[in-house]
Amino acid sequence: MGKIRLATEWLDACAGCHMSILDIDERILTLLEHAEITSSPITDLKHPPADGVDVGILTGAVSNTHQVEAAKEMREHCKILIALGDCAVFGGICTMRNFFPKEEVLRRGYIETESTHNPEGIIPDEGIGILTDRAMAVDEVVPVDVYLPGCPPSADAIWYVITELLAGRKPVLSGEVLKYE
Ligand code: SF4
User: Fold this and answer.
1) Per residue in 113-144, pLDDT tens?
2) What spacing in Å lies between the alpha carbon of 48 and ligand 1's midpoint?
3) Cβ–ligand 1 contact at 86 (below 6 Å)
4) 68 and 38 Cβ atoms separated by less than 8 Å
5) Taking all residues of the chain, what is their mean pLDDT, rounded to a whole number?
6) Is the CB of 91 under 6 A from ligand 1?
7) pLDDT at 125
8) How many domains are contained in the chain?
9) Which of 70, 84, 98, 141 has the fewest CB atoms nearer than 10 Å to its CB?
10) Could you tell me if the CB of 23 is within 6 A of ligand 1?
11) In this structure, is residue 174 part of a structural domain?
């Protein structure tokens, strides 16, 4: 069997989930024997290739129009989509902003924060994604095949999911895999 093709992308996320992927440490060499990582935040190519991949991994919630398009692009270009991390699975900490109108969130973020110097009160609206009304879990935008919660999921849990997929099985996440310390 040839190598499977794997793409990852982060949406509204911190780097924690991708750091946890890298925390598989030397197992990444085993992974590379069986998989080609076509695109990721740490490779030159950031988006899944046009001819698609076997497995797509999304980290982070969906919080702006750019991320809506990125989630749809990944879904259209992968056979199995993994929502990795609490933000991707149910919105996580990104949904804290859902308690406030997005205009208030933008004003607070770009104008009012104590560390901000923005006397003209400019809120950028060109060349960046427009904030959605709510931060959303990935499956509010596109169908997800595998959910791997955790903030971030442990490297062992990520490795379990990857190796199950490499073996041609759909991962079943038991309590043991999902325990947190
Ligand atoms: S789940 Fe946690 S570690 Fe992952 S992107 Fe969200 S905040 Fe960061």
Assistant:
1) 999 999 999 998 888 899 999 999 999 999 99
2) 21
3) yes
4) no
5) 94
6) no
7) 84
8) 1
9) 98
10) no
11) no
In whole angstroms, give the CA distance from residue 165 to residue 178: 17
Residue carrying the six token digits 């490297």: 155
Determine if residue 121 is left, alpha or beta; phi over 0 gives left, psi from -120 to 50 gives alpha, anything else beta: left
* Higher-pLDDT residue of 94, 128: 94
> How many residues make up the chain in this entry?
181
CATH number for 146 = 3.40.50.700
Tokens 């989630």 found at: 71
CB 17 near ligand 1, within 6 Å: yes
* Domain-located, residue 107: no
State if residue 59 touches ligand 1 by the CB under 6 angstroms criterion: yes
- Give domain status of residue 25, yes or no: yes
Quick count: other Cβ atoms within 10 Å of Cβ 179? 11
User: Range of 28's domain?
Assistant: 4-96+135-167
Q: Which residues contact 79 (CB under 8 A, 6 or more apart)?
A: 52, 53, 54, 55
Which residue has the least CA distance to atom 2 on ligand 1?
Answer: 151
Q: Is the residue at 172 inside a domain?
A: no
